[in-house]
Amino acid sequence: MAEPSDSFLDRPVARLLALAVIAGVVAVLTLQHWDDLFPQQTQEVADPNDPVAQCIARETAQIERMVADNPGMAAQKELFVQRAQARCQAMEGSGAGPPRLPTD
Fold first, then answer.
1. How does pLDDT run across 13-30, given as a tens digit for each residue?
2. Which residues contact 94 (CB under 8 A, 6 or more apart)?
3. What is the secondary structure of 11-43 as a DSSP string?
4. Cβ-contact 8, 14 below 8 angstroms
5. At what angle do helices 77-92 and 51-69 cross, to 10 degrees?
6. Is 96 left (phi over 0), alpha (psi -120 to 50) or beta?
7. I need a labelling partner for 6 at 20 to 30 A (CA). Which of 22, 59, 77, 103 fits?
8. pLDDT-based confidence at 7, cuts 50/70/90?
9. Does the CA dihedral 34-37-39-40 come out positive or negative?
């Protein structure tokens, strides 16, 4: 008959340690790829032909990425959004109309 092995790898503690390592690796991979696994919903533009709404959506998305990259700017986020809305209104007009034609 075979003699019982006294190796550490044959003990239940080693198997529990291996399961803990696997769980840790899965947790780290999940945290690193959280946005890939669960993408955040983007805001839908009310009127896809409205240039002001498109501009505001584009600018808001850029501001969201900027705040995500630099969390210290979170306090200024609302100010940035307000300025972006005003800038889009000034550049694109009052909205709900055709975009302005470029002037030569």
1. 999 999 999 999 999 999
2. 52
3. SHHHHHHHHHHHHHHHHHHHHHTHHHHSPPPPP
4. yes
5. 150
6. left
7. 22
8. confident
9. negative
